[in-house]
Amino acid sequence: MDKDYYRILGVDKKASKDDVKKAFHKLAHKYHPDKQGGDAAKFKEISEAYSVLGDEKKRAEYDSYGRVFSGGGGDSGAGFDFSGFSGNFADFGVDLGDIFGNVFTGGGFGGTRTPRGRDISVDIEVSFREAIFGARRNLMLAKQAVCDTCTGSGAKPGTSMETCSRCNGSGKVRDSKSSILGTFTMVQTCSACHGNGKIPKEKCSTCRGEGVLRRQESVDIMIPPGIENGEMIRLSGGGEAVKGGVSGDLYIKVHVATDPLFRKEGQNLLRDLQIKLSDALLGTTYKVKTLDGDVDVSIPPGASHGEIIRLKGKGVPSGKSKRGDLLLRIVISLPSKLSKSAKGLIEKLREEGI
What we know:
Blueprint: H1 5-9, H2 17-31, H3 40-53, H4 56-65, H5 86-89, H6 96-104, E1 120-126, H7 128-133, E2 135-146, E3 161-163, E4 172-179, E5 182-189, E6 198-200, E7 212-223, E8 232-235, E9 250-256, E10 263-265, E11 268-276, H8 277-282, E12 284-290, E13 293-299, E14 308-311, E15 317-318, E16 322-323, E17 326-333, H9 340-351
């Protein structure tokens, strides 16, 4: 074989037709001569390879004889005129209509896509308690929003829309472009009507016919229970609006304030509970602060330093009715100084082997 088309496309000889197509699309986007860093020679080479390996009959001939006997043909791709290319690839039997129709249709170089507004990202801080139980927050955002007066149409209320003269109501315009490979025509969204095919007969005085304008907008946000520090909340459509398209998304990064008592460990809460040495030895009851209010906690006699007392259902909510636990870690406070009588009592305890 004069040329190894499989090597050119970077695929195995057993590659499926879809794998061959994917490999070609990737390389075509990379080396297209109209793109920055493109390579006309490389683009021509991969196009030749795909014209053979992408066709079952030609591929079979190539695999068997190392060359292709059948000629090219076919209609040009949607939105493109490849008439200027025919002379450049005639020797190879390249079906340019098939190649470029597949590459550029539906959002490639010439395909049209629905306009989408910009995404917005904001940071908010919530208290530890709000992060555990959830909360509602209201934000005021300065952003591009749909005009309330015309509800995004751009037309003065009570007036009608008319056919766009630039695209004749199609919402698309054709733009011819020359390159070293010839001339092709790209189909793009009409900038006058933003793809709607219609423009206002009389423009809205509030947004001047744009359908969107920059303003302050109030946004309600629900902070879900148990959210972690640094987590993102995505509000679909909460970003900036664009005429004739869909709004972007709003991303809220949540920063959870630390708490002097509590720490979060998965679905459980953890806090230290300081008790006196005598209470650890003899046992007692302590009033303990939780996120649900104060509760009485029994300290068993002989409690040791670091021992965990579990309060069930006092932790982080999980689902509609389930909650984690609150773990109390006992910290025994030892006196820095002893009175004479206390020292005597300790000496007696030592004599008894305690």
